[in-house]
Amino acid sequence: MPNAVVPSSLDSQDGTPPSRLINLVRGWPAPSLYPISLLQRATAATLANPNIAQSAFSYGPDPGHEPLRRALAEWLTSFYEPAGGGSGSEISYKRVAITGGASQSLGNILSVYSDPEWTRKIWVVAPAYFLSFRIFEDAGFANFGDRQKMVAVPEDDEGVDVESLRRRIAQCEQKAQKEGDHTPAVKPSRPWAKIYKHIIYCVPTFANPSSRTTSLKRREELVRCARDFDALVVCDDVYDFLSFPTDEKQMEKQQGGMDKASLPRPVDLDRTIDGGTGRAGADGFGNVVSNGSFSKIGGPGLRCGWIEGTEKFAFGIAETGTTKSGGAPSQLVSTFMADLLETGDLQKHILSVLQPAYARRFLKMVSAIENCLLPLGATMPQSERQVAGGYFVWITLPGHVQSTEVVQRAQIDQNVVVAPGEMFQIPGDETEANRFQRQIRLCFAWEDEDQLSEGVIRLGKVIQELLKEPPQKGLQHKTESSQNRESVQKFW
Q1: For residue 236, which phi and psi values (nearest 5 degrees)?
Q2: What 3-state DSSP class applies to 199?
Q3: Going by C-beta distance under 8 Å and a sequence separation of 6 or more, which residues neighbour residue 271?
Q4: What is the pLDDT of residue 255?
Q5: pLDDT band for position 86 (50/70/90)?
Q6: Longest dimension (CA), the chain
């Protein structure tokens, strides 16, 4: 018999669900952590300067507000220390283009650097950020009928399974060569752009939803794989700055903060390994782009972010039709964010406010998981790692328990909502690498700190009860997955 779950302080005496809803689905930053006072100061300072204010309200240069690009380049150089921080390793502002956030940026990347026919596949590391699927579909890569354009790539405990990816891309290329698929079918040749044969989409650090971090070895393998097959790796690097040590003593010593990245990004490796992006025979566009955003470290309403790639790649993003027509994305907000970075206010906010707050939340949730879920047989990936971060914890359920059952019971019986694993499956991919019926995602960023343990305790009660019941026969996973998605959609 599984170990008993710690009693909840909010247990109902009459069997009715607890009255306080706990939302462990929503992957948003906690509103209490928004840097509102910092933005008030930056906004006032910016608009008080006539030269900056006039620029702020104009269309802006296509690559974005140059002071922000320069401030970002300096900050990224300091945080990632590319190429070991030696001479010549600084990130040039010309490698940076301003965007309207990571989602808008992904759409622009696809519009400039992919062709819905000639680009063979979108290789999506799964489980995957589910709201990216619509962006790929809108760009012409929907799966329907015999047309399979979005494909799941598995993860293991080292992150992206590059060996599996390489094998499947090679098979895809063999098929394309046999069919004589040599020329982009939809988009003409353009001097500022290129069409990649493959797009690989991943979140290499603190992945959404799996929380995994891809190892250095795998990152290097991923870059080499992309080069071998003319692929572009699109890395959502949106959680990198929200990192912290998992050891409480180390956390206290550092006051919860980490001002340096624990691993180089794939875009840093593309710049340096095996001759870098300027190696003989390379076309100068590179094979990796880093997609950054202020949504997780400022607030999603800012709708401001950046990409970093080669200078040639960044120029191509600035040439997107929507930018050529509408001017620099987020021009007004860009002037505020430039001030926050130039003064160091945002960096201090991340180090002294965000990282310690999310570290406390993470530790509270993980402690509750260790007490209430692991004794029941649940597991977490990379549970022994020294550095954690991001927003999420990925749970594999014990025994015969399915996420469809947990999501329904948790919401009805315990008034706690969690995200079912099926929500993160690539639509239309029926392969084994794309099955997550026994997983759930928990978010520790949105809810108040004191509710995180309570939410896990309630979840433990549900799982404990399900373990006592016989396995359900003939579950209609597609139907139930759709129902579960609809039932939690209002809590995103």
Answers
A1: -80, 100
A2: strand
A3: 82, 83, 277, 286, 310
A4: 65
A5: very low
A6: 73
- What sign does the dihedral 153-156-160-161 (CA atoms) show? negative
Backbone dihedral angles phi then psi of residue 234, each to the nearest 5 degrees: -95, 110
Tell how many helices (H) and how many strands (E) occur in the chain. Answer: 17, 16
Buried b (16+ CB within 10 A) or exposed e, 5-38: beebeeeeeeeeebeeebbbbbbbbbeebbbeeb
Q: Please give the backbone phi and psi of residue 237, each rounded to the nearest 5 degrees, phi first.
A: -100, 45
Which tens digits make up the pLDDT trace of 148-165? 999 999 999 999 999 999
Q: Which amino acid type is present at position 490?
A: K
Instruction: Choose among 342, 234, 249: nearest CA to 288.
Output: 234
The three-class DSSP label of residue 469 is coil
Buried/exposed 448-477: b ≥16 CB within 10 Å, e otherwise: eeebbbbbbbbbbbbbbebbeeeeeeeeee
CA-angle at 360, arms to 354 and 365, nearest 5°: 125
User: Tokens for 262?
Assistant: 């624990």
Dihedral angle sign, alpha carbons of residues 209, 73, 285, 277: negative
What pLDDT is recorded for position 1? 38
